[in-house]
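Lab notebook, design round three. We kept the backbone fixed and only want residue identities now. Task for the bench partner: fill in a sequence for the structure below.
Input structure tokens:
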């Protein structure tokens, strides 16, 4: 009920393949999610985390990777961050916020 858990579900039969504990509670019941190949990106309250899955499943002992987030300067530095959309386009992970657009390379996970 608090949006803390993400379930990965097989569409064909509705079976839950994995359940991820994000470690954070949310006011909404959904997250900003994006996926490509075997990577799941989740926009949390304070960062973006990436879980990597193999063909035989997810290793629950392997911690997620936290993507570096840039600091904002100028007029928008003090404005609250409000993520609107998280998506993948070709080789870029894109986070649209209320005042800006941020990009990461999906292979290196470095901020572009």
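Proposed sequence:
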């Amino acid at each position: 009920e608090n949006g803390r858990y993400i379930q990965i579900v097989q569409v064909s039969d509705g079976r839950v393949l994995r359940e991820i504990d994000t470690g954070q509670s949310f006011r909404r019941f959904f997250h900003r999610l994006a996926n490509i190949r075997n990577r799941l990106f989740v926009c949390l309250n304070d960062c973006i985390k990436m879980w990597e899955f193999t063909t035989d499943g997810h290793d629950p002992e392997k911690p997620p990777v936290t993507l570096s987030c840039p600091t904002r300067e100028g007029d928008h530095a003090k404005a609250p961050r409000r993520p609107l959309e998280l998506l993948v386009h070709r080789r870029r992970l894109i986070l649209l916020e209320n005042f800006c657009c941020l990009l990461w390379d999906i292979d290196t996970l470095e901020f572009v």
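Keep this in mind before ordering anything: The beta strands are 5-9, 16-21, 32-36, 39-43, 48-52, 65-66, 83-89, 92-97, 101-105.
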